[in-house]
Automatic annotation (TrEMBL):
<dbReference type="InterPro" id="IPR025110">
    <property type="entry name" value="AMP-bd_C"/>
</dbReference>
<keyword id="KW-0436">Ligase</keyword>
<dbReference type="GO" id="GO:0003987">
    <property type="term" value="F:acetate-CoA ligase activity"/>
</dbReference>
<dbReference type="Pfam" id="PF16177">
    <property type="entry name" value="ACAS_N"/>
</dbReference>
<dbReference type="InterPro" id="IPR032387">
    <property type="entry name" value="ACAS_N"/>
</dbReference>
<dbReference type="InterPro" id="IPR020845">
    <property type="entry name" value="AMP-binding_CS"/>
</dbReference>
<dbReference type="InterPro" id="IPR042099">
    <property type="entry name" value="ANL_N_sf"/>
</dbReference>
<dbReference type="InterPro" id="IPR000873">
    <property type="entry name" value="AMP-dep_synth/lig_dom"/>
</dbReference>
<dbReference type="Pfam" id="PF13193">
    <property type="entry name" value="AMP-binding_C"/>
</dbReference>
<feature type="domain" description="AMP-binding enzyme C-terminal">
    <location>
        <begin position="519"/>
        <end position="598"/>
    </location>
</feature>
<keyword id="KW-0007">Acetylation</keyword>
<protein>
    <recommendedName>
        <fullName>Acetate--CoA ligase</fullName>
        <ecNumber>6.2.1.1</ecNumber>
    </recommendedName>
</protein>
<feature type="domain" description="Acetyl-coenzyme A synthetase N-terminal">
    <location>
        <begin position="12"/>
        <end position="68"/>
    </location>
</feature>
<feature type="domain" description="AMP-dependent synthetase/ligase">
    <location>
        <begin position="70"/>
        <end position="462"/>
    </location>
</feature>
<dbReference type="InterPro" id="IPR011904">
    <property type="entry name" value="Ac_CoA_lig"/>
</dbReference>
<keyword id="KW-0067">ATP-binding</keyword>
<keyword id="KW-0547">Nucleotide-binding</keyword>
Length: 636
């Protein structure tokens, strides 16, 4: 039996059972038959779920960039690897073949080496969605440098804290970036960030917008002349299975972002396997994921997963609303996209617009639709199904996380019967469990619980950069011996999972994972603010939006409230990024606290949602009277 491709529901159950009964045999076969290795493993898996220690394909030697590129050159050298669709529809799209991509990656790899980057060094990549972004990831992987991509919407201080945390030696950026009708000064943001980043020795700059930038002598270099001068061949570094491939930061329950570390072999096997099965990619299909490579979805399902499978993947620089709301549909029509993978927040925003935007385009190429990043509500699901999928393209609602490396729970198109709002069944190798409040495993169906995974899978993050204890505390301590996802889920009568949302202090806004703690930390730095508490509340388009309850210091009391609100949001934008701005800000005279001084967020969440029923017992609060005040002055 071919374990790599599941083609019927019966085969899914067979493979799933095999993967649970004999995980090593299962993953060993998948790894053995579908990749190139310098040396095979001694053991498929060694693990410890208490100390969060995972070794997949122990002692195997490989290079993931070689698996993404070199392996395809004989058979698919002339096939398009990347279609680049620029922000401006009048600028020509680019088709980059596997051979061309291979050459560009080799040249870039040689430039990195020439600038002193060695195996194990960290390289921060702060680029817009242009081909050089994918090329930079692969070039790092080729020479064994660890890439740390920072989403190019983050502010200078967010970039700085990420560079400092992993002590990056180099930054790859561009002069500027285009997004819709805006041009953003990326190099200026990097310059500001680097004032507090002594580890950075060099900055490579892509010319994208032809804008004037400051180039610091000795540190900053335009990349193109270096690429032109570099050799076009590069021998890929021999990497150990567990060598780190990349760091990707995600927000956490304290102000400091968590640098999730993914390693080489397990991540490769898992992203390739999941891409193959979830998107039903065939032959010369054109696959398009609209995420940004600055997030895990882009790492795994724009770059690594598709290229490992020799697919054609679209990189889109722009936004769905530019030049108008038909842009997505225009691109699907223009490039005859077969698999389309986007986020519910985009679907909801586009569903609000006139249907004529979509109706003037031919979407008949679409075979499979994907959704990711947040729960998809019933209305959005049906709109997606009716208007984009024309009721013939199955929707795969894919649940996963930065930490999981790849998709964990999702229907396989044409195989798993879909059910709106349900991510349905786990992928082979994934063993989800629901836990009750007493921390016991729930056996029944038709129940809600905290979603945990009880056995390792190859794509699991291995640690938090520089802080393994935090990794254990965050993911492996709430339910001993299990990986805790931070999500709640419902399991229905046939065993389908529906993700109900976060059960911790993370809020998913427009598909972006935002920890409330870092936002509170940023707000509290504002000179007029004494204390703050941020909670999420339901929002028609964004899924959730942020509501801030803020107490002021004496000097803030006399200030104009609207000015203060504006200042606080500007403060958040410059400390974190515009995505973390608050939709509502209520100034309060105090925050509800327990006797031990902990803010009772449960109550604030209910007030923000406008649900005044059942606050629970508030008499144990230190200041129960405050609840009434906050309720009465709630912003609608
Ligand atoms: O709450 C879940 C939500 O997004 C969180 C992970 O966010 P991040 O690490 O940024 O990765 C996003 C892309 C994989 C999860 O804990 N989430 C993601 N996908 C879904 C989802 N919630 C419901 N349904 C989904 N399909």
């Amino acid at each position: 039996m071919n374990y790599y491709k599941i083609d019927s529901l019966e085969k899914y159950f067979k493979i799933y059972n095999k993967s649970v009964r004999e995980p090593e045999e299962f993953w060993g076969r998948v790894a053995d038959e579908n990749f190139i290795w310098y040396q095979k493993w001694d053991k498929v898996l060694e693990y410890d779920m208490i100390n969060a220690d995972f070794k997949w394909f122990k002692n195997a030697k490989l290079n993931i960039a070689r698996n993404c590129l070199d392996r395809h050159l004989n058979k698919r050298g002339d096939k398009t690897a990347i279609i680049f669709e620029p922000n401006n529809p009048d600028e020509a799209a680019q088709h980059i073949t596997y051979s061309e991509l291979h050459e560009r990656v080799c040249r870039m790899a040689n430039v990195l080496k020439e600038k002193g980057i060695q195996k194990g060094d960290r390289v921060c990549i702060y680029l817009p969605m242009i081909p050089e972004l994918a090329v930079s990831l692969l070039a790092c992987a080729r020479i064994g440098a660890i890439h740390s991509v920072v989403f190019a919407g983050f502010s200078a201080s967010a970039v700085a804290s990420r560079i400092q945390d992993s002590e990056c030696k180099m930054v790859i950026t561009s002069d500027g970036s285009y997004r819709g009708n805006k041009a953003i000064d990326l190099k200026g943001i990097v310059d500001e960030a680097l004032q507090t980043c002594p580890s950075v020795e060099s900055v490579l700059v892509v010319n994208r917008t032809n804008s004037e930038v400051q180039m610091k002598e000795g540190r900053d270099h335009w990349i193109q002349p270096l690429l032109d001068a570099a050799a076009k061949d590069n021998v890929a570094e021999i990497m150990d299975a567990e060598d780190p491939l990349f760091i990707l930061y995600t927000s956490g329950s304290t102000g400091k972002p968590k640098g999730m570390v993914h390693t080489t072999a397990g991540y490769m096997v898992y992203t390739a396997f999941t891409f193959k099965n979830i998107f039903n990619y065939k032959g010369d299909d054109v696959y398009w994921c609209t995420a940004d490579i600055g997030w895990i979805t882009g790492h795994s399902y724009i770059v690594y997963g598709p290229l490992l499978n020799g697919a054609t993947t679209v990189i889109f620089e722009g936004v769905p609303s530019y030049p108008d709301f038909s842009r997505f549909w225009d691109i699907i029509d223009k490039h005859k996209v077969n698999q389309f993978y986007t986020a519910p927040t985009a679907i909801r925003a586009l569903a609000k617009e006139n249907l004529s935007y979509i109706e003037k385009h031919d979407l008949s190429s679409i075979k499979v639709l994907g959704s990711v990043g947040e729960p998809i509500n019933e209305e959005a699901w049906h709109w997606y199904n009716n208007h984009v999928g024309r009721k013939t393209a199955p929707i795969t609602d894919t649940w996963w996380q930065t930490e999981t490396g790849g998709i964990m729970i999702a229907p396989l198109p044409f195989i798993t019967p879909t059910k709106p709002t349900y991510a349905t069944l786990p992928l082979p190798g994934i063993q989800p469990v629901l836990m009750d409040e007493r921390r016991n495993e729930i056996d029944d169906n038709q129940v809600v619980g905290s979603l945990c995974i009880k056995f390792p899978w190859p794509g699991i993050a291995r640690t938090i950069w520089g802080d393994h204890q935090r990794y254990i505390d965050t993911y492996f301590s709430a339910f001993r011996g299990k990986y805790f996802t931070g999500d709640g889920a419902l399991r229905d009568e046939v065993g389908y999972y529906r993700i109900t949302g976060r059960v911790d202090d993370v809020v998913i806004v427009s598909g972006h994972n935002l920890g409330t703690a870092p936002i509170e930390d940023a707000i509290n730095e504002h000179p007029a603010v004494a204390e703050s508490a941020i909670v999420g509340f339901p929002h028609d388009i964004k899924g959730n939006a942020l509501y801030g309850f803020i107490t002021l210091k004496e000097r803030g009391e006399g200030r104009d409230r609207d000015n203060l609100r504006r200042e606080i949001n500007e403060h958040i934008a410059s400390h974190i990024g515009p995505i973390a701005k608050l939709d509502k800000i209520q100034f309060v005279s105090g925050l509800p606290k327990t006797r031990s001084g902990k803010i009772m967020r449960r109550i604030l969440r209910k007030i923000a949602e406008g649900d005044f029923s059942n606050f629970g017992d508030i008499t144990t609060l230190l200041n129960p009277e405050i609840v009434e005040e906050i309720k009465n002055e709630r912003i609608d």
